[in-house]
Amino acid sequence: MAQRGRGRLTIFGRRYGTHTCEHCARSIVGEGNVTQHGRPVGAPPDPADATIPLDAYLGATDALTPDRLLRGRRAVPEHGWRRLVHRASRGRVHPPESAAEVRRRELIARVRTPVAGGHHRVAVLSLKGGVGKTTTAVGLGSALASIRGDRVIAVDANPDHGTLSEKVRMETPASVRDLLAEMASVPHPRYADVRAFTSQSISSRLEILASARDPELSKAFTDHDYRSAVRLLEHFYSICITDCGTGLLHSAMGAVLELADQVVLVTIPSVASARSASATLDWLEAHGHTRLARNAVVVLSSIRPGKGAGVDIEALRTHFDKRCQAVVTVPYDPHLAQDAEVDVELLQARTRDAFLTLAATVGDGFERR
């Protein structure tokens, strides 16, 4: 026989009234908003149950969501005591979502923002090498590809023997130049034709289009080549992430910036790297790319443990917050430090959360065109 009783439950510093029995249950549907089923009609209100109606936030009609009305539609708790309660009750008791679960659901919704115009180009930049630029491009692309239902591709536009192809299991040695040479003789290319030249991550579905392995050929990758490549890709992919070189003046960079809808600027928490990143924003504004600079997302990447010791991270965040759209911090992760293939399943939880936040922040720009 289930115990009847009243008590107080504290969740993340907030106190809630509780009441459970075999015939009635109460579920918290929002912070401080508690609903009870099974109370006798006319029973006096319990002061512990004083709440702000959900309708006050959502509107009467918006409150009638499938998740609230249809059995089995509410998200199953994945962690902690909520999961234990849900399993112990065989799904009859749905504990409230934690603040972290609510935030994660909101981030995922932002990642899934429809792409205006059907195609969005993101350029990942850094003036300094060794700051985690390519890793950031793969982390961003992996988060987008694993959550969205459409296709996402990352293109290596680094003229100095880029390493993007080393971040996924290689399925083909083909490069972007091979793709362009082959497609020149194909009047109506299909997705399958393009897919033959890409490698795909098993863990995230992100596709990679590599640069030429011969340094002479990669340096010869021109504005025209880049334009031809991305205009082909836009027919088959919703999002194209370009992993750029470490300079702003190499052969294809003019086309990369001209065609980009958004820029992700990667730096590490050091004085020299931060000054370089800020100078990059200065350069963009001085060369007709003010929109890209203002809408840029700055990533503070901790590629080695202890990197940034003694640096005022909050001062860095404040500086870049004033200059661009947002700042996202990616923590040190032993799996990324291996500088090899990236398997999202092997990332630490906080690293996955950081890339999810980055993908959501980039997703906020999908509606801009």
TrEMBL record:
Any GO BP annotation: negative regulation of cell division
GO MF annotations, alphabetized: ATP binding; ATP hydrolysis activity
InterPro entries recorded: CobQ/CobB/MinD/ParA_Nub-bd_dom, P-loop_NTPase, ParA/MinD_ATPase
One Pfam family linked to the record: CbiA
UniProt domain CobQ/CobB/MinD/ParA nucleotide binding: residue ranges: 122-338
Gene Ontology, cellular component aspect: cytoplasmic side of plasma membrane; cytosol
PANTHER family named in the record: ESX-1 SECRETION-ASSOCIATED PROTEIN ESPI, SEPTUM SITE-DETERMINING PROTEIN MIND HOMOLOG, CHLOROPLASTIC-RELATED
Protein name, entry field: AAA family ATPase
Organism: Actinomadura barringtoniae
